[in-house]
Amino acid sequence: ATCGHGCKYGECMGPNKCKCFPGFTGKTCNQDLNECGLKPRPCEHRCMNTHGSYKCYCLNGYMLMPDGTCASSRTCAMVNCQYGCEEVKGQVQCLCPSGGLQLGPNGRTCIDIDECSTGRAVCSYNRRCVNTFGSFYCKCQLGYELKHTSGRYDCVDVNECVANTHRCNLHAECLNTQGSFQCKCKQGYRGSGFDCA
User: Fold this and answer.
1) Using one digit for the tens of pLDDT, what is the confidence trace for 150-195?
2) Predicted pLDDT at 72
3) Which of 38, 162, 164, 185 is deepest in the core (most CB within 10 A)?
4) Alpha-carbon distance 39 to 55, whole Å?
5) How many Cα atoms sit within 13 Å of 11 on the Cβ side?
6) What is residue 36's DSSP assignment?
7) Of 136, 134, 133, 138, the residue nearest 123 (C-alpha)
8) Euclidean distance between CA atoms 29 and 196, whole angstroms
9) Which domains are assigned to the chain?
10) pLDDT single digits (tens) 129-148
């Protein structure tokens, strides 16, 4: 089976038919499925959607159980955690619903970790890191766009000259370069290529 449009987070199962991996949806499996919006809801109290998955957390005074339910806890209520808590060997610890969050100095609230600036995020050479609350994603560098080529998704150079997104002067020629473009004044004209006289 071949899928001309490709299956980003899934497998090609029939002519242009994708079977998405869990947590993804859409014709080409390129969209994150918001599990928090599903019926029945996957979490008892609060739900946080993540890329390809989700995390459950409990209201203050409740403890997250291994099966995703929330159990009332007198000790948790006393600690006053932002995202619920867990008891480890009699010690109460506040929880953060994502690996991209860390407990703040007060030990109760969660603050974002900027994976892009700390170097924890690894994006391929032609992609740039974009930080989000609790996570990050890799986006194509400026001058590149995500395209499905030779069976996979990749960031390919945008030809600004063909796409007509350049700002070259009427009397200049557009020359495409990797990730950008150049403007050169035509014969008989002088200037930067953006201004030609």
Assistant:
1) 777 788 888 889 888 788 998 999 999 888 899 999 999 999 988 9
2) 80
3) 185
4) 16
5) 3
6) G
7) 138
8) 47
9) 158-196 (2.10.25.10)
10) 989 888 888 888 888 888 77
